[in-house]
Amino acid sequence: MGPAVHRTRYSTQDPDQALDILARVYSVRQWTLTGTEGFHLEVATTTIGPLTLEAARTRGAAGTQTVDFTDTLRIDHLTAGRLAIDQVTDKVLPATPLLLPPAGYTQRWSQAAMHSVALDPTAVQAHACALHGNELVPLHFTGFTPVSTAASRYWTELLTHTHRYVLSNKDATDSPLILDQTVRHLLTALLHTFPSTFLEAPPPSRDTAPVPAALRRATSFIDSHLAESIGITDIAQAARLSPRGLQAVFRRHLDTTPTAYLRRARLAAAHHDLLAADPATGATVGGIAARWGFAHRGRFATAYRRIYDQSPTTTLRC
């Protein structure tokens, strides 16, 4: 069983209730409002395992809120209004992701709307060690802003994709494969977007396992576990290589990546299901695509047509 989806939604015009909501979701300790006329707070959260995606909007009065130490890594993404974070910047730019200080901070906002991603630090640490191939990599974030414009864009586009094609897609939220991929992708994006000891760590020692045998182990593992929630660290462990070594082996001998190989194998499995399915029984392209980890139906159709020279809808109807 993969991670389940848990959703909550709050809406209030009462400042005292608003503080309770903000304390529960964002660990806010105290806040002040510049008047209460027209005040309205809306908060929605979606939790998938160690990941919580949050959306908040304030209307009416401006305010200041203080967050003490938190055991959550949170990335804010302003979409409207004004926001300042005293320990980071006096003006948050829209569409710029910011990693919030875990030791605490003070926010000042007005007519603000934002998306946030909250991650369990234990899961982030474990993912960093698995990706690096070294269980002893200490993880500390050393900055609050993305390491580059490209990294910022990557994070923003991934977050947009998650909201648009995963959280708003019932086939996707019913798919353990897609939910697990969503968590993995955001964990990986966090580690590559913000400065940290993960990016500064030296690469692990060179793998010495015989390449053909390691490659056979990797492809056999993928082919045997297509319907399960697996990622590059699982494949590397089965191949007895580090994740970086695994990437090099696939690139050198198959001119592809492990994730591309996995995606192609799942596309073939979806093709098999489309051929065997009967639309009269309720089978749909979206449902079959989601079963094999494809949340974006348009991208699935494009990839499918590239390989099989016809649309998945045509295959299903044949």
UniProtKB/TrEMBL annotation:
<dbReference type="InterPro" id="IPR018060">
    <property type="entry name" value="HTH_AraC"/>
</dbReference>
<dbReference type="GO" id="GO:0043565">
    <property type="term" value="F:sequence-specific DNA binding"/>
</dbReference>
<protein>
    <recommendedName>
        <fullName>HTH araC/xylS-type domain-containing protein</fullName>
    </recommendedName>
</protein>
<keyword id="KW-0238">DNA-binding</keyword>
<dbReference type="InterPro" id="IPR009057">
    <property type="entry name" value="Homeodomain-like_sf"/>
</dbReference>
<dbReference type="Pfam" id="PF12833">
    <property type="entry name" value="HTH_18"/>
</dbReference>
<feature type="domain" description="HTH araC/xylS-type">
    <location>
        <begin position="216"/>
        <end position="318"/>
    </location>
</feature>
<keyword id="KW-0805">Transcription regulation</keyword>
<dbReference type="GO" id="GO:0003700">
    <property type="term" value="F:DNA-binding transcription factor activity"/>
</dbReference>
<dbReference type="InterPro" id="IPR050204">
    <property type="entry name" value="AraC_XylS_family_regulators"/>
</dbReference>
<keyword id="KW-0804">Transcription</keyword>
